What we know:
Elements: E1 13-16, H1 23-33, E2 37-40, H2 41-49, H3 53-60, H4 62-77, E3 82-85, H5 94-103, E4 105-110, H6 113-117, H7 120-123, H8 135-149, E5 154-157, H9 163-181
The structure holds shikimate-3-phosphate.
Amino acid sequence: MQVDRTSVKEKSLVFIGFMGVGKTTVAQIVAKKLYRDFIDIDAEIEKEFDMPTTDIFKLIGETKFREKEKEYVLHYSQQPLKVISLGGGAFMQDEIREACLEHSIVFYLDISWDSWKERLHMLVDSRPVLQNKSMEDIEELFHERKKTYEEHNSAFITDDFDAEEVADYIIDSIKLAWEIYD
Ligand code: S3P
């Protein structure tokens, strides 16, 4: 097995969490403040197929979307100095989870069900995974995925904070880790 010798300071930062929690917004701010490249995995896939995720699911299928998601995450998570936002379902794939935890630093953006459900109406049109599901089904998926997101390096409960505050907290915690481990 090849050992990953990327220093803690150079490891890429990966953001995970349920749909609509704010991964892309927070990751974008963090990337800017740390002068790093920002990668949004969903945007990469959409660019490749030249269509939004809802159409990819409808016309090409979720299986192909998940394959591409794996390809992109495995590629970018092993590169240094990136800030990467993953789609909410990506971390459910074993290979993605293992690669991110091995090669990068994984930040879990958490949110309570009560806060999240207020956002559902803004998300449903662009999130095929939420379409044609009852509230009970969505709540079950929310809690089911939480168990997998628990495999992270650092977590933040976002309920009472805006994206800028979350990003600042994360940057402070990264800087502390750099001091401790480097
Ligand atoms: C998905 C989440 C979406 C996107 C796709 C599937 C999921 O990303 O990857 O619609 O399975 O949770 P966001 O988490 O950015 O909404």
